[in-house]
Backbone:
């Protein structure tokens, strides 16, 4: 993909990136021959932003460069020319938002080089990794080139569209809405993510801060309310007033800031208190869509719509929230397929890992835990926690389940396809056991226990005095080890009640690493008198 | 218990709260029939700094009505930041509506209210928006009403007459040297004489006596009244003598946080007892927007002054 921006295009492009960076850390690029889409989702998946720049926005724009033929080779048999990639928004933004860029750059070329190139001569194409190349043409013939590594997007998330039947539509200028929100001081200072409750009635709009202290949270000491005439809105079409919705402001403010910088009016669409809020803005050359989840309002009077919302909440917060998921996952089939694949893989490898970590075991935690769930994802698995939902409901559910973590990189995916067990099942001998040379791997459980029992007798015979020279002679090296191991086991037996062979084999696995420590036990005076 | 007033001078109220907010998270506000008192006690900050200020009701409010069983005094505990945010919001609304100064024009009604059994200070105003349509704004600041009995336990620190009174240099000027001094030691000596020439000394000694730093400012001696002058003329008073007070350096830094608000400061030194800083918001003198009195106690001295 090649896209060239001139000075006039660069400003809104940078502003859009700044806005996207407020929505989420990762930027997903999706380029088709007609348009370039940039999207971002926040970590709790409760807000989504997408900018779609049409071809005309750029001075020059093409995907899958037909002219050179070189890239065509690279693309191979790919029929639909799309280019995708993912990177940290900040890394691109920091390049474009730089002070000197605004002053001196006359042209900015963005190009994506896909990593499946076979041509070794092209220095841009010589790696397996996809790259985003940013070339800034500055004054005095200076050309700055930045190469940013692109990841394969984990999933292309897209929001569903609201049902148009019961939709309410509003249009308001950015300045007005900014003035309204500025009245809420908590929005400026609070580190958290403040929430506002909007009640749209026939003639008035009533805004209320949710950091209301009536919920008796010690932190909140100020509650703010604002009532404004509905005339403030250019379009005010409420489906069934009064209707109350509540949403967080962090992302909304980012959208307003963007709209304000380009003086574009905002179109707001929403249906009921539980469906997300859609904000559209744009002009001829680009369009932006923001989707922000709304949340349940406590106590605030909202009339009929409120109780309707409550009943829907009961449905929506069911065990799997199926009803909502379906409506939101309206998606192109191709994308669906894209998303389904990694999910499935993740789930399969994930289960054993999850079970293992939840078992009480003698083993130390593995040094790297790629399969461990991030807390963000493990929480919904334990059942929908309503407390978390209230804060921010995930807007976009991955198709199969919430609980599966997203693969982070191709490397990770490969790991899943060819899973190397982190924990060896008890029935299989571990390499450590084989290495110990005790022949444990060929023993049955009874033999295994017998081995220890024998040791026990030996221990009793010898009394508590440990490991004389004589014993060393008699028992040899392996017997010494076994004796020590047994000794250790005896020490531990007070705390460890689980003495199944499987666990014994697990504990033997530790043997090589602990040998030196065990060896230190024999007392040697540091200084001789 | 009833209380209701129009906030006439939002900017000044806002500035006062800005200063208080810098100092302490919570403060006590006491509304009396003729004055509003803002009190910050030392127990909420480790530096031992206290604020006792009285602001005339007429500088901030009009249509001031107050009624309570405790001599028409209402005292409350309030989060300074919340009150500040409310006032800033009001100021902002007044500014966008075009009245600019926020003086007069729209009425900002402040009253004691109760919602869901929670006492609060309610601010309400109606202003035109940018497009000229009316909007109504309310801010509810949660408060904790203090009983008269509780208030009797809160007493202003007693101190003798000041040994010397000087007009401090502007706070931003003081800030950087004080920051440097604080890095050297936790104890700051504030010294001043009567003069002329009047000088103010800020002095620290390194914790291990390895370094001694003295910053000297030429300042103006403040004569409060004739009486004072006569006293000063009295033969017993040595004009050259430096009156000193050792204080926790951190508390002076905290006080200097007030530099965000324009004002003049008169420092009173009670030798080996305390440092009192009178912060006049806006200009000093009779037309000051308000006076905040900072009380910084002396550290127990452990050596020659």
Residues:
């Amino acid at each position: 993909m090649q896209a060239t921006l001139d000075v006039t295009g660069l400003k809104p492009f940078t502003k859009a990136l700044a806005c996207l960076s407020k929505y989420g850390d990762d930027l997903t690029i999706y380029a088709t021959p007609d348009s370039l889409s940039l999207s971002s989702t926040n970590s709790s998946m409760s807000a989504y932003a997408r900018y779609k720049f049409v071809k005309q926005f750029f001075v020059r724009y093409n995907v899958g460069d037909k002219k050179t033929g070189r890239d065509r080779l690279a693309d191979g048999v790919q029929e639909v020319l799309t280019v995708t990639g993912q990177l940290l928004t900040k890394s691109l933004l920091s390049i474009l938002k730089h002070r000197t860029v605004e002053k001196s750059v006359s042209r900015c070329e963005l190009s994506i080089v896909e990593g499946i190139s076979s041509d070794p001569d092209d220095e841009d194409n010589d790696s397996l990794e996809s790259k985003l190349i940013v070339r800034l043409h500055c004054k005095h013939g200076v050309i700055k080139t930045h190469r940013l590594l692109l990841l394969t997007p984990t999933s292309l998330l897209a929001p569903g569209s609201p049902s148009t039947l019961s939709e309410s539509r509003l249009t308001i200028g950015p300045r007005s809405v900014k003035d309204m929100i500025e009245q809420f001081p908590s929005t400026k200072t609070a580190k958290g993510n403040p929430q506002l409750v909007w009640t749209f009635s026939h003639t008035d709009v009533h805004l209320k801060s949710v950091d209301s202290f009536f919920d008796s949270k010690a932190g909140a000491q100020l509650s703010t309310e604002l009532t404004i005439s509905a005339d403030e809105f250019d379009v005010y079409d409420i489906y069934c007033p009064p209707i109350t919705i509540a949403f967080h402001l962090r992302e909304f403010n980012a959208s307003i800031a963007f709209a304000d910088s380009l003086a574009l009016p905002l179109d707001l669409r929403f249906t009921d208190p539980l469906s997300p809020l859609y904000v559209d803005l744009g002009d001829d050359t680009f369009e932006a869509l923001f989707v922000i989840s709304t949340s349940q309002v406590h106590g605030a009077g909202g009339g009929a719509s409120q109780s309707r919302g409550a009943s829907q909440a009961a449905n929506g917060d069911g065990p799997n929230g199926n009803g909502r998921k379906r409506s939101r996952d309206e998606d192109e089939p191709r994308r669906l397929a894209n998303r389904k694949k990694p999910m499935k893989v993740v789930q399969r490898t994930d289960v054993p890992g999850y079970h293992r970590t939840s078992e009480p075991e003698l083993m130390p935690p593995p040094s790297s835990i790629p399969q461990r769930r991030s807390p963000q994802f493990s929480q919904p698995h334990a059942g929908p926690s309503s407390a978390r939902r209230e804060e921010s409901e995930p807007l976009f559910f991955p198709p199969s389940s919430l609980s599966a973590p997203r693969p982070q990189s191709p490397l990770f995916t490969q790991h899943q396809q060819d899973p190397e067990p982190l924990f060896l099942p008890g029935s299989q001998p571990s390499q450590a056991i084989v290495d110990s040379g005790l022949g444990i791997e060929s023993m049955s459980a009874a033999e295994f226990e017998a081995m220890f029992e024998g040791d026990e007798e030996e221990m009793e015979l010898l009394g508590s005095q440990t490991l004389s020279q004589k014993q060393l002679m008699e028992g040899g090296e392996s017997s010494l080890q076994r004796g020590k191991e047994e000794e250790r086991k005896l020490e531990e037996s007070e705390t460890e009640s689980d003495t199944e062979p499987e666990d014994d084999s697990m504990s033997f696995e530790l043997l090589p690493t602990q040998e030196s420590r065990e060896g230190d036990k024999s007392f040697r005076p540091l200084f001789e008198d | 218990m009833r209380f209701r007033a129009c906030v006439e001078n939002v900017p000044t109220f806002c500035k006062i709260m800005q200063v208080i907010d810098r100092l302490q998270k919570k403060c006590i506000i006491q509304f009396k029939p003729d004055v509003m008192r803002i009190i910050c006690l030392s127990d909420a900050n480790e530096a031992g700094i206290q604020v006792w200020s009285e602001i005339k009701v007429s500088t901030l409010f009009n249509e001031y009505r107050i009624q309570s069983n405790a001599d028409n005094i209402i005292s409350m505990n309030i989060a300074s930041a919340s009150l500040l945010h409310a006032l800033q919001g009001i100021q902002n609304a007044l500014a966008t509506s075009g009245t600019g100064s926020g003086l007069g024009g729209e009425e900002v009604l402040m009253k004691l209210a109760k919602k869901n059994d929670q006492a609060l200070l309610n601010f309400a105003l109606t202003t035109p928006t940018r497009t000229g349509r009316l909007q109504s704004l309310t801010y509810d600041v949660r408060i904790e009403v203090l009983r008269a009995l509780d208030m009797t336990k809160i007493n202003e620190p007693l101190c003798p007459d000041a040994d010397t009174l000087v007009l401090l240099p502007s706070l931003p000027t003081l800030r950087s040297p004080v920051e440097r001094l604080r890095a050297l030691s936790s104890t700051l000596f504030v010294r001043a004489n009567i003069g002329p020439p009047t000088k103010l000394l800020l002095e620290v000694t390194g914790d291990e006596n390895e370094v001694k730093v003295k910053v000297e400012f030429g300042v103006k001696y403040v004569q409060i009244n004739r009486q004072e002058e006569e006293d000063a003329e009295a033969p017993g008073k040595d004009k050259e003598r430096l009156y000193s007070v050792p204080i926790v350096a951190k508390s002076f830094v905290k006080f200097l946080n007030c530099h965000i608000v324009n004002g003049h400061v008169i420092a009173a030194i009670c030798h080996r007892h305390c440092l009192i800083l009178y912060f006049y918001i806006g200009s000093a003198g009779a037309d000051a927007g308000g006076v905040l009195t900072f009380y910084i106690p002396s550290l127990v001295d452990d050596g020659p002054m």
Notes: The longest strand of chain A covers residues 105-113. Chain A touches chain B at residues 175-176, 179-180, 182-186, 189, 213-214, 220-229, 231-232 (CB under 8 Å). The mean pLDDT of chain A is 65. Chain A has 18 helices and 18 strands.
